[in-house]
Automatic annotation (TrEMBL):
Lineage: Bacteria, Bacillati, Actinomycetota, Actinomycetes, Streptosporangiales
GO molecular function annotations of the record: methyltransferase activity
Protein name: Class I SAM-dependent methyltransferase
Keyword field: Methyltransferase, Transferase
Gene source species: Microtetraspora glauca
Gene3D superfamilies registered for this protein in UniProt: Vaccinia Virus protein VP39 (3.40.50.150)
Tagged with keyword Lipid biosynthesis: no
InterPro entries referenced in this protein's UniProt entry, alphabetically: Methyltransf_25, SAM-dependent_MTases_sf
Pfam families: Methyltransf_25
Length: 266
């Protein structure tokens, strides 16, 4: 196998703080989690399937995938994440890089890239990761990749009130223009790449995955100040998730959602 490329140290430093697990299990992050789970349950092969969760973090998604009956292998470059995921029932975890997977050709039914494309700031690296996923997936399998939307940082800073701070405004406005975020403590995130909703289709196609379908995850609802109140109320939550599903493929709303899931079948 080829040697795994290096990973930027500032990104590793951000994730060793262990915040990612809590982000998706509490607060407004639950909307992203529940919507990701909803889409994946519709597009993945029936259980039991061999699912490779690449960049799967602490195993937030691997946990429910295993509970659904899938055979889940999690791969992540952060040792803390691998340690956390290894404790989950039905999940095996090891260190690795999305751009150089230590896996045989056609050895998985599905490959998930629910984090790597955020932090591969060079297009060639993103295409390389998608091509690696295609190599590993069996014919008829599924590849699903998450991306952060181009204007997500601007929206987050406006909602939090920090957009009024000139240094913050400068950084996030730049990310909306060019896609590259130079994260810092004031913004609360690390170095990342934010996609225009159309460019991911070109990256999939260049990796040998034409005809991919895009799903807006949070829709416009992630922008709502009171979204946590909706998520806390089971009845209102189901209404919110229902309309988010119905509008997930609406082209005029794709770029408004904070995150998008793009899915291809081999």
């Amino acid at each position: 196998m080829t040697q795994s490329p290096e990973f930027p140290p500032e990104i590793l430093d951000y994730y060793v703080r262990g915040r990612e697990d809590e982000r998706l299990r509490t607060g407004r992050g639950r909307l992203e989690f529940w919507r990701t789970r909803d889409v994946l349950r519709r597009v993945l092969p029936p259980a039991p399937a061999q699912v490779m969760d690449v960049g799967g973090g602490s195993g937030v998604h691997a946990e429910w995938l295993a509970a659904d009956g899938h055979d889940v292998e999690l791969i992540d470059p952060v040792p803390l994440h691998v340690e956390q995921a290894s404790r989950l029932a039905g999940v095996t975890a090891r260190e690795g890089d999305a751009r150089a997977l230590e896996a045989a050709d056609a050895s998985a039914d599905a490959v998930l890239l629910l984090g790597p494309l955020y932090h591969l700031t060079d297009r060639a690296d993103r295409v390389r990761a998608l091509a690696e996923a295609r190599r590993v997936v069996r014919p008829g399998g599924v590849i699903a990749a998450a991306t952060i939307s181009r204007w997500a940082a601007v929206h987050d800073m406006v909602r939090s009130g920090r957009y009024a701070e000139e240094p913050v405004r400068h950084v996030v406005d730049d990310s909306a223009r060019h896609g590259l975020l130079r994260g810092n403590e004031r913004i609360g995130f690390t170095t990342a790449y934010f996609h225009d909703p159309d460019e991911i289709l070109g990256e999939f196609a260049d990796a040998g995955l034409p005809g991919a379908r895009r799903y807006a995850l949070e829709g416009v609802f992630g922008l709502y100040a009171d979204v946590e109140e909706w998520l806390d109320d089971p009845e209102r939550r189901e209404l919110l998730l229902g309309v988010a599903r119905r509008s997930e493929g609406e082209p005029t709303l794709l770029g408004v959602a904070g995150h998008m899931l793009t899915v291809a079948h081999t």
